Amino acid sequence: MFDCASFTQLLYYMHDFKRNLNRKSLRLPNCDYTQTGAFFITMITKNRECLFGSVFQSEIRLSPLGNIVNDVWQSIPLHFPQATVNHFVIMPNHIHGIISMAGARHMPQQNFEQFGKPVSGSIPTIIRSFKSEVTRRFNILRNSPGGKVWQRNFYERVIRDEEEFQKLSDYILANPLNWHEDQHFR
What we know:
This protein has helices spanning 4-21, 64-74, 76-79, 123-142, 162-174; strands at 37-44, 53-56, 59-62, 83-90, 94-101, 155-159. With 186 residues, it is an alpha+beta fold.
């Protein structure tokens, strides 16, 4: 027999489980995220908490967790040789970066990402691995098993040409200068 609190927890769990089953992917439905191209990526901390450092006189000062983010971001090509990390900035509660993919031309089929069916070496898989490793190291650093670092999902934009690549690179590099006007600033 359930007591009232247990029943409420069960209902909450069932609601949360159902909500996750109905969750829609933000990825473009027919985009092959393993092929040659460049992608602008934004990831935000859970509750926009400023975990990665602070901005002082328009310069980012990384915290120990910010240094972890930096190390893991720069190690992406070691784990995903088809990926190159270009310009990126770690802000107090988010990260912007550009990842270029060399492409997997040897694969005959298209590799369309589907919710719950990750594609090896794709942008979503790279970001999932990145967020997981940052979270794992954060939990070791803070001795907080199960601690959350990230908001669910991430924002990505397919960069369509060199002009857009340059505009986004400029935006990334200027981000610390514009911190107080940033939509992620709290």
